[in-house]
Amino acid sequence: MIETKRLLLRPWREADKPGFHALVNTPAMMAHFGGPVPQARHDAILDKQIAQQERFGHCMWAVELRETGELAGVCGVRIGGHPNTPVPEELEIGWRIGEKYWGQGIAREAAEASLAWGWANTDRPRIAAWTVIGNTRSWGLMERLGMVRRADLDFHHPEYPPEDPFGAMIVYAIDRP
Q: What is the DSSP string of 49-107?
């Protein structure tokens, strides 16, 4: 779907589910999501992405290394879909790149390609991203991509209880160039 120098961003396949779970369900990868979860939780996440792809033509795509075909993570754009928040219909960019690929610029390469795709294929006036305040690697990439903190859009993620700190989302956004 999207090719970069090193990566292929493509729709998810049912066969990706076990590999995705193994890649992202480590203590380090899940540190900002409340810790490791059962495979069924990650299967549900991929089911939502598959449905987003079918409905809108985009999602948080599978990120593959072009040279080897290895699954390196996830990156793409999707409709936020969080009702009763300031971002219910925002076009959200997001990423999760496996630990063994950290520090190689893969998240940035995939995110830049996803932003370019979003501008070329949607009419959205901005693209947003969110994470917890403690996820400095993620919001640091948001800043390197040119995104700006939008405290007016911060929210508590509806999938977390109100008292759970993993639900406290900070939001960054970038306006259409």
A: HHHHHHHHS--EEEEEETTT--EEEEEEEEE---TTSS-TT-EEEEEEE-GGGTTTTHH
What kind and span of H or E run contains 137? Answer: helix 136-144
Q: How confident is the model at residue 8 (pLDDT cuts 50, 70, 90)?
A: very high
Q: What is the pLDDT of residues 41-86, one digit of tens each?
A: 999 999 999 999 999 999 999 999 999 999 999 999 999 878 888 9
Of 88, 142, 140, 96, whose CA–CA distance to 115 is shortest?
142
Q: Shortest CA distance to 95 belongs to which of 50, 57, 55, 145?
A: 145
Q: Tokens representing 89? A: 């219909």
